[in-house]
Amino acid sequence: MTVAIRASRLLLLAVLASLGACGKAPERTEDKRTVMVHIATAAPSSGMQLTGEVRARHEVELAFRVGGKIEARLVDAGSEIRAGQVLARLDPQDLKLAASAAAAQVAAAESEVATAGAERERYAGLLARKFVSQAAFDTRQHALNAAQARLEQARAQRSISANQADYGSLRADFPGVVAAVLADAGQVVGAGQAVLRIARPEEKEVLVAVPEGRVASLRQAEKITVRLWSAPELAIAGKLRELGAVADPQTRTYPARISLLEAPAQAMLGMTASVSLDAAPVAALVVPLAAVGDNGQGPFVWVVEAGKLRRVAVRVGNFRADGAEIVGGLRGGEAVVIAGISQLIEGQAVVTRPAPAPAAQR
């Protein structure tokens, strides 16, 4: 009986303790996440900037007009050449033999003409005395005509062989600069195979690759400025001369050539240059690229208001080197989260921390 009473008291105490615990509300603590924010500001009018290479407007690939083994290459890449200068030579042995064979064929053809001519004269005398028929004389006349035709053919072949012997020396037709060496001494090349690429430095231009989203801006640009990386203080006026109609299948960019209207002496072939296009001011805000997200329902950013996150749908204009242009949905001066945006939720309490300067971010 005593044991039963003691057990009842213990059970009563346990029930009272549990009731007391249920009546006391637990304290809730809300963890606040620290986020890095950037204040949305007006996008500066920086225009468009492209990077390219200084090239000659006219570049020609020189090749031998006959095949053979290259005996010597007399110039290197970057060498300045003059008109008529010998740039490379083929092994002349085979060409000399071909010229000798052609000369021998001419001598043989001349002998045939002499023999056929003598025969024709003899038959002409016999025909006058009625010793041979007219048909026999005509046969000798036709033989003489054929011999004379073979002589003309042999002489033409001799001229061709003489030209081919001269073709064994690759000469420059105009002054220029050797832009590239495509074959070297000891290599066997065929007729028409490129050996050297020659650039004419009279007219210089910059070759750039234009993204497909900037093609229209390049066409409409009223002023183009080119600056050399080796001499950034020089501002060279440029003009769009050529814009490719087909994009490169690998980079999906369009090749464009910007002519240098007054190329300075410092602008040497192969130098790196930047091409800037003047643009009108853009009515947009700029935010870092990492601040813009898209989960399949359109671009958005996270904005911090009163210590809580709010998701804002935005319209993006252009993507620039310094960020993305926001043309709708965002107001100037709003704090935009620029890191970890995929791990945030609507209404989450956060603590903001200003983003470092762009130079420190890179």
Short description:
The protein is 28% helix and 36% strand.
Can you tell me about this structure?
By secondary structure, the chain is α+β, with helices and mostly antiparallel strands. It folds into 4 domains: 33-46 and 282-361, Beta Barrel (conserved putative lor/sdh protein from methanococcus maripaludis s2 fold); 59-90 and 168-195, OB fold (Dihydrolipoamide Acetyltransferase, E2P), CATH 2.40.50.100; 93-167, Helix hairpin bin (Helix Hairpins); 201-277, Efflux pump adaptor protein, beta barrel domain (Elongation Factor Tu (Ef-tu), domain 3, Beta Barrel), CATH 2.40.30.170. 28% of the residues lie in helices and 36% in strands. The protein contains 5 helices and 22 strands. The protein has helices at residues 2-23, 93-128, 134-167, 215-220, 358-361, and strands spanning 33-39, 41-42, 48-63, 68-73, 80-81, 86-90, 169-171, 176-181, 188-189, 194-211, 224-228, 236-243, 253-260, 272-277, 285-287, 293-294, 299-305, 308-313, 315-320, 323-328, 335-337, 350-354. Strands 1, 16, 17, 18, 21 and 22 form a 6-stranded mixed β-sheet that branches. It has a 6-stranded antiparallel beta barrel with strand order 3-10-13-12-11-14. A 4-stranded antiparallel β-sheet has the order 2-15-20-19, with no helix packed on it. A hairpin with a 2-residue loop joins strand 17 and strand 18. The radius of gyration is 44 Å and the shape is rod-shaped. The two termini are 82 Å apart. Mean pLDDT is 84; it is low at 23-29.
